[in-house]
Amino acid sequence: MSSARTGTPHRPGRFDRLVIGMNAIGSLWIFAMILLVTGDALGRSFFTHPIVGTHEMVQISIVGIVFLQLADTIRTGRLTRADSFLGAVQRIAPRAGAAMDALFMLLGAAYMAVGLWGSIPLLREAIQRNSWIGNEGVFTAPVWPVKTVIVLGLAVCMLQFLRLAVAGLRRAVAGRGGHA
Q1: Closest to 109 (Cα-Cα) out of 151, 150, 164, 62
Q2: Structure pTM?
Q3: Which of 2, 55, 163, 167 has the fewest CB neighbours in a 10 Å radius?
Q4: Rounded to whole angstroms, how far apart are CA atoms 112 and 159?
Q5: pLDDT recorded at residue 176
Q6: pLDDT tens readout for residues 48-78
Q7: Burial level of 130, CB count in 10 A (0-12/13-18/19+)?
């Protein structure tokens, strides 16, 4: 395996394996949703009997999948950002470019920290109130599992941003530009 940012081979550490594992779980979850939606469509079309709760399961699954896969997007450098200016700065002044990249990563960590700070009370509330989604008597599902995935995903994303910020700061201090 190679680092997407440097192209150099490395063995993923425990944290990298956690992030990769979360991404894999998100991918399996997508596959399960494909099967659910396909089964629902076939049931509606051929048997006039849809799968109850499909809409609700897809609705909460999308959020869970995003937060399972976001940290790997950050880790591999595939997070969408406009970095034309950053690339130009890195070519002209590698240390300044590395410092700017580190600043971007610190801001990303701060954004994830704010999301985490706001999501923990929502998780606590969902557990305490036994919140659910759906229609009582037809289909209901608890919301705390997805809220837990959100909190875990935000925490891991925050740590991933911090790891990349530290790498950027090291490059800035060492006088090397480029990506970590």
Answers
A1: 164
A2: 0.88
A3: 2
A4: 9
A5: 66
A6: 999 999 999 999 999 999 999 999 999 999 9
A7: exposed
